[in-house]
Specification:
With about 450 residues, the protein is an alpha+beta fold. It has 2 domains: about 260 residues, 2-enoyl-CoA Hydratase, Chain A, domain 1; about 90 residues, Pdz3 Domain (Roll). The strands form 5 sheets. Strands 5, 6, 7, 8, 9 and 10 form a 6-stranded antiparallel β-sheet that branches. The protein has a 6-stranded mixed β-sheet with strand order 12-13-14-17-18-21, with helices on both faces. Strands 3, 15, 16, 19 and 20 form a 5-stranded antiparallel β-sheet that branches. The chain starts with 7 loop residues before the first strand and ends with a helix. About 35% of the residues are buried.
């Protein structure tokens, strides 16, 4: 145990959905002789129990399995995000933060003994199958999840590419359990996407915060910028984004802020507070371009850092539903030749000093997800133009024959109906955009802000 005491430098790593700090130092605490004595007695207790299990358990056990289980039990008793990773799991986590890994594409946590879905990742087997944030996984291939650790549950859902796994899902609004059969895949996450909405709004989608997210977002915006001659707003979509790397959350926030604090992380020692601020000169768009950030219950961790920073600086309107509420920082401490431990080391706070741990970010405008259904107009509806002896519009053509022509009327009505039904969409999936109720409300808001600014005289 002595090698774990003293000053230890830790590399920067994180799981998707967990946050890391660049460097963390662990110091051996100053303790009294009595405290040391009590600690040694407890370690002797552990040794006694360990030896009794080795010799008397009904089946033979491996020492390494017992020790790893004991370490993991100690860590998982602290909070849902701390835990032990063996060497294999540690290597897989390192690959995952680079944006490519094998599995189902789902961010999970433990809640009351069951695996809870934080968020499915876009374009992965989990998302395509229809899993939703807030779903509970009760069985994996007909094996009960109750009693498993998070690592054990993850291990059961992993497997060879193209192999299948059956998940039994408990969903609040569904009285009976749901069964999903998913095919495992090699998941390559392109964590940032962009498209235009009409010729005036840029839509940016961040699916997770991996090592490439900021660079990808900037590349994608540069690609679509030529199609935005009249840029009137930006929609940043963080829905169902489970989080990721802290430095990426900071750099993406920085892309929309000129100055000011983005986030602070506070450890147990009040003197070990770190503040991260925006740098002027690298903004993606000017602060005169209005923004809307879309969030929901699947927006967690790093997503909440971005939303909280932009909300506190009044840089963007937050629209959607309350976020997940994960306001803690996890640091990965490698253990040579054994893997690593993932330990919660700090809480993070928004620029105004808010901790969103277990509270989440409340949107400025609450918009629940809904289905868009176009309603046909009443074909018998009448207007002023249909009334006899109505006053003529002085701008109308003077030719009475053309005005009274049934063919002309039919053409006018057809044109009006077409314009009313034409959805405001962009590239990359017009139908999805048109049916996205929250996105359409965001577009309405941005365009309304533009109209308001054009009719309101400057002071």
């Amino acid at each position: 145990m002595s090698r774990f005491l003293g000053k230890v430098k830790v590399v920067k790593l994180a799981m998707v959905g967990a946050l890391s700090v660049a460097t963390v130092y662990a110091y051996a605490p100053v303790v009294s002789y009595a405290e040391k004595s009590e600690t040694f007695q407890l370690l002797n207790l552990f040794g006694d129990v360990f030896e009794r299990v080795r010799t008397d358990y009904v089946e033979e056990t491996k020492d390494s399995d017992l020790v790893e289980a004991a370490i993991n039990g100690m860590l998982t008793s602290l909070d849902p995000h701390s835990g032990y990773m063996n060497e294999k799991a540690f290597k897989e986590m390192q690959v995952q933060t680079r944006g490519e890994f094998g599995g189902l594409g789902i961010e999970i946590t433990m809640d009351n003994g069951l695996v809870k879905v934080v968020s499915p990742i876009d374009d992965t087997p989990a998302a395509k199958a229809g899993l939703l944030p807030g779903d509970y996984i009760s069985y994996i291939d007909d094996d009960a999840v109750m009693g498993l650790t998070l690592s054990e549950a993850v291990e059961k859902m992993r497997g060879k590419v193209d192999s299948k796994v059956k998940l039994t899902i408990l969903r609040d609004e569904t009285p009976e359990p749901l069964e999903f059969t998913l095919t495992r895949a090699l998941i390559k996450i392109r964590s940032a996407k962009a498209r235009t909405e009409g010729d005036d709004v840029a839509y940016l989608r961040i699916t997770s915060f991996t090592e490439q997210s900021t660079d990808l977002m900037r590349e994608e915006f540069k690609r679509i910028k030529k199609d935005l001659p009249n840029l009137r707003g930006v929609v940043l979509d963080l829905r169902n984004n489970p989080g990721g790397l802290l430095d990426q959350a900071i750099s993406i926030s920085d892309a929309f802020l000129k100055q000011g604090e983005i986030v602070s992380t506070r450890e147990r020692d009040p003197n070990r507070t770190r503040r991260h601020s925006a740098r002027e000169g690298d903004e993606l768009v000017g602060d005169d371009v209005p923004m809307v950030v879309l969030v929901n219950n699947g927006s967690a961790s790093a997503s909440e850092i971005v939303a909280g920073a932009l909300q506190d600086h009044k840089r963007a309107v937050i629209l959607g539903t309350k976020t997940f509420g994960k306001g803690s920082v996890q640091t990965v401490l490698p253990i040579p030749e054994h893997g690593a431990i993932r330990l919660t080391t700090a809480r993070y706070y928004t620029p105004s000093g808010r901790s969103i741990q277990a509270k989440g970010i409340d949107p400025d405008i609450v918009v629940e997800p809904a289905k868009i259904e176009l309603l046909k107009g009443d074909k018998h509806a009448r207007s002023e133009a249909d009334l006899r002896k109505r006053l003529q519009n002085l701008e109308e053509k003077k030719s009475q024959e053309a005005k009274d022509s049934k063919e002309g009327k039919a053409k006018d009505k057809s044109t009006d109906a077409s314009d009313a039904k034409k959805p405001v969409t962009g590239k990359d999936g017009e139908q999805d955009s048109a049916q996205d109720f929250q996105l359409q409300r965001a577009l309405d808001l941005l365009r309304a802000v533009h109209v308001y600014n054009t009719i309101t005289p400057e002071k």
